[in-house]
Design brief:
The protein has 161 residues and is an alpha/beta fold. It is built from five helices and six strands; from the N terminus they run βαβααβββαβα. Helix 4 packs parallel to helix 5. It is globular, with a radius of gyration of 14 Å.
């Protein structure tokens, strides 16, 4: 059976879906939902804090993991009110999965790239929510990766809906 796939464009939609699935683990790719690709430290810190403050609306969540293949890190991690918070820089998605193995199920991966975040979700047997910001704001590299990812999506995931 192929893992689930959905494409959403707003944080509220992502959180609503996490509530519906009673997700116990939610893995967020950093760029672009938490902080945009070309943003600085302040934007990253603000984005992490925002996600953690909003995840409280999903009572089933026990683990929030922020994962990025870049080296960027927040200044610090705000405490998650009863939620374990993990931040993985240089995560090696989708190849390295050992860091995620102990997380409770069911889980979701929210990210913009099927080739990294989507394959990670598939390997973990989590639902993949592809976060798609407006196309005009996506840099050329991620936009090209998105087009390539759409070609392999039918091989990895069941059709949405």
């Amino acid at each position: 059976m192929r893992a689930g796939y959905e494409r959403l464009t707003e944080l509220d939609e992502v959180l609503h879906r996490a509530r519906q699935l009673a997700a116990r683990t939610v893995i967020f790719d950093i760029e672009p939902l938490v902080a945009y690709w070309d943003s600085g430290q302040e934007a990253l810190d603000r984005g992490v804090a925002l996600i953690l403050s909003r995840i409280e609306t999903v009572p089933s969540v026990q683990v929030v993991c922020f994962a990025t293949n870049s080296v960027r890190r927040p200044s610090g991690l705000p405490p998650g009110d009863g939620v374990r918070v993990v931040y993985l820089a240089s995560a090696g998605k989708p190849l390295r999965i050992a860091s995620y193995q102990s997380f409770p199920r069911p889980g979701m991966v929210i990210g913009d790239q099927i080739a990294t975040d989507g394959i990670l979700a598939r390997r973990l047997d989590y639902v993949f929510v592809q976060y798609g910001p407006p196309l005009g704001r996506i840099p050329a590299g991620p936009r090209a990766m998105d087009r390539l990812g759409q070609l392999v999506r039918p091989l990895l995931f069941t059709p949405p809906g």
